[in-house]
Amino acid sequence: MIGPDVTAGTELPPTSIRITRADLVRYAGASLDFNPIHWNERVAADVGLPGVVAHGMLTMAVAGRVVTDWLGDPGALVEYGARFVRPVVVPNDEDGALVELTGKVRDVREDGTARVDITAKFDGRAVLGKAVAIVRVPAS
Where does the record place the MaoC-like domain (predicted)? Predict the structure, then answer.
């Protein structure tokens, strides 16, 4: 759990998460999103994508882990939003796609919450824009 000493500028421990084609299958089953761009190379190419891509909401959920892992209590996550700016292309191999995650406390508010800005990158480029989490800071 984050402590009451959280201040603006606090950097969360960076983390990296791999997304594989098997993850896409599991996510499709859980979300009922069976869009073929998430499993069929030909369809992905036909719509102008560079390959099979991860579901946007899966990418967003993976990125949120940098905050929930740091919090130690997923229930302390009050609000989370992001924009999808670039897809995560998932190769058909054992390694999958590496998503690199960082976060930084932007401000701590008088209402006992803090704003955390999240950065999610794939191939060195941002995949989410305006990724912001509002978290509850425990009372001292």
Answer: 15-117
Tokens of 126: 């941002």
User: What is the C-alpha to C-alpha distance for residues 20 and 12, in angstroms, rounded to an integer?
Assistant: 25
Token reading at 69:
């892992």
Instruction: List, as own/partner pairs, every contact residues 124-128 make where C-beta atoms lie below 8 angstroms and the sequence separation is at least 24, other chains included.
Output: 125/86, 126/85, 126/86, 127/59, 127/63, 127/84, 127/85, 127/86, 127/87, 127/88, 127/99, 128/59, 128/60, 128/63, 128/82, 128/83, 128/84, 128/85
Spell out the CATH class of 15-136: alpha beta
User: Token pair of 77, please?
Assistant: 């996550």
**The pTM is what?**
0.91
Domain range summary for the chain, segments of one domain joined by +: 15-136
